[in-house]
Amino acid sequence: MIQPQQFCDILLNHGIDFFCGVPDSLLKNLCAYVDDNFAASQHIITANEGNAVALATGHYLGSGKAAMVYMQNSGLGNAINPLTSLADPQVYSIPMLLVVGWRGEPGIKDEPQHVKQGQVSEQQLAILDIPYVVLDSSSDLTHVLPNLLNTMTAQNRPVALLIRADCFAAYKSKSKTTSAYKMQREQALGILLNMFAPSDVVVSTTGKTSREVFELRKSQGQLCSDFLTVGGMGHTSSIALGVALAKSDKRVIAIDGDGSMLMHLGAVPIIGCHGPTNLVHIVLNNQSHESVGGQPTIAGKIDIGQIALASGYKAYWCVDDETALQAIWPQVSASNGPVMLEVKIAIGSRDDLGRPTSTPIENKQAFMSHTGSL
Hints:
This protein is α/β, with parallel strands linked by helices. It folds into 2 domains: 4-163, Thiamin diphosphate (ThDP)-binding fold, Pyr/PP domains (Rossmann fold); 185-371, Thiamin diphosphate (ThDP)-binding fold, Pyr/PP domains (Rossmann fold, 3-Layer(aba) Sandwich), CATH 3.40.50. Helix content is 42%, strand content 17%. It contains 14 helices and 14 strands. It has helices at 4-13, 28-37, 49-63, 76-87, 112-127, 141-155, 185-195, 208-219, 236-246, 258-263, 267-274, 304-310, 322-334, 360-371, and strands at 19-21, 43-45, 67-72, 96-101, 132-135, 158-163, 201-204, 227-228, 252-257, 279-285, 288-289, 295-296, 315-319, 339-344. The longest helix has 16 residues, at 112-127. It starts with a helix and ends with a helix.
């Protein structure tokens, strides 16, 4: 396996000492090493992958030095616009190293939301005319990486590494993440699901949230007719807005996460401006990208309530324990939307947490049957 330190040492030898991106489980050991060994000003976790490409562009314009941009391959969609319209050699010709986790690689079993992206990742890089190398645990890093970086420098262009599973050796972070809150996400979800009305329409966010929603429904003998947003991180609230506008006679509840909300924060003022009275936006805030390694978000350093109210939400509440959550729900439920409920939670989930056993198509059909759209 490739040692994160060896990887970063080669980058330093080629003048790369600035890192930005969105965490991915295949890159968690590399990101943990970067976080421990570089200053906060040298490592910025961005809201989305397009932001990271833009940040790397600004870094080059301001310093004359290339940056490393990391992401899951699903993030290539967010990155395509700045890569083609800014960084491409036919526009501003900005050198940067893209480090892309290859989820859904053909021949490797993965979740449904990763399959198509895994199939097309190499084609995406090829059609973008980005020189790339596939990196795995047996790659000769001392040969492969310098050659790719030399291409980047000589041609002033983005280049990429497509990272296979188990490429990087384990690295234990020196930083200790602690939470001021006791309630875990699954506890909060259990309380919320029990308080929702049977007619409520639920859209839940990516990662462990939808997995826990599915398992909680199953444990209670309920059909899971909630829309599980297994892919498309950051779009949960927009999906919920679309449903709320189409089904004005039903209450629609978006169960969001802090990382998801931040990834496409512009959805919040759009919701506020269109003012769907039947929309409740719940943000489960553990200040972490927990599903891909537990890297921090900035959600503990901003005032989410002020953002919601300034964006046109009619009301906002914040709770951080089970008693307060149960006590506030009747007020939330009785209010005209759009409204936001922030639930501050601890990091953590069960080791035996499963995944949805229904297919995405089955989930879609159950959801649309519940909403009366079929």
